[in-house]
Structure prediction request, 351 residues.
Amino acid sequence: MRFEPNSLPTLIGSLPLKSHTEATKMVLNYTPEIPLWVQLPSYPEERLLSQFSEGLPGLKEDGDAICLDTSGPEFEAELLAFYEDYLGVTEGGQPLSSSRFAMSESRTRGLETLIQAVKSLDSPPLAVKGQITGPFTMLTGLKDQDGKAVFYDQQLRDAVVKMVAMKARFQIERLKETGTKVLIFLDEPALSGFGSSAMVGMSKEEVIAALEEVVNEVERAGGIPGIHVCGNTDWDIAFRSGVEIISFDAYGYLDRMFLFKPQLEQFIRDGGIIAWGLVPTLDPDRLESATLDELLERWESIVSGLSLECQQIAASSLVTPSCGTGLLTPALSEKALRLTRELSDSIRSRV
Prediction:
């Protein structure tokens, strides 16, 4: 196994704060072994689509409204320039940091804050974590000028997938400066809707191919690829995508994941890691009433429900909130972080 987390805690991404410095201090307080760079939704440029779409051909932004406009006379030239830049980086030796695929300062406040904070530590953590909006969520969330998801345009689909792959690589190159392993999660909330009437005509093989292209780039860059889905989905997609970490809402959807138990167990046997989102963050009322004892009972149901040794499960596990906490109150967000830490400590003390 390239990376053995041994039930250590990490987080999913967003926090409901306005200061990247304060948010990073909180991350390092509760998850110092595997800290992540924070995304703060209070900044419009750090939201789901806008943070990673910069540099796409035909991009039009107007406040929170964002689309890829292919109707203008300049689009073909923009598309050609995009692929020239892509080949310049992947085949021509152009530094990624000076290309259109580099993330701009306004979109990387959390990334830069984490890098500087980790560099100031006496010793590096076990790993650092980055995250990026996954290709499927980008392809279904971004629309063209007519309101049609860009997934249905093969030319745009290819460009978006390559953009996501390059921005993931950019993160890895920057995070490697911390001197430790780099985890990159593809955040894929849209996979919860895969197969619905709103996504007719999207094949599983096309979705897996998009994920694989990004996963392969993450691995080429020396990162450890993961996927995070905060709802239920066809988990066969995640198992076949080539990721090394699968992160999901184990508080709300453990029974649905267990429908894929043979694949889940084989994934762990083959060295895969499961990030069990056992701290509920998608329902504020459940988080408000959640206790450590309750969450430990849920962990025990995982151990008893799998035909694997407890030590193997624990070694192959991360403990996380079920999703980001950016839409919670600061007090509830901190409770989620505290429970994640306490749950991890309790699990590790029992193994």
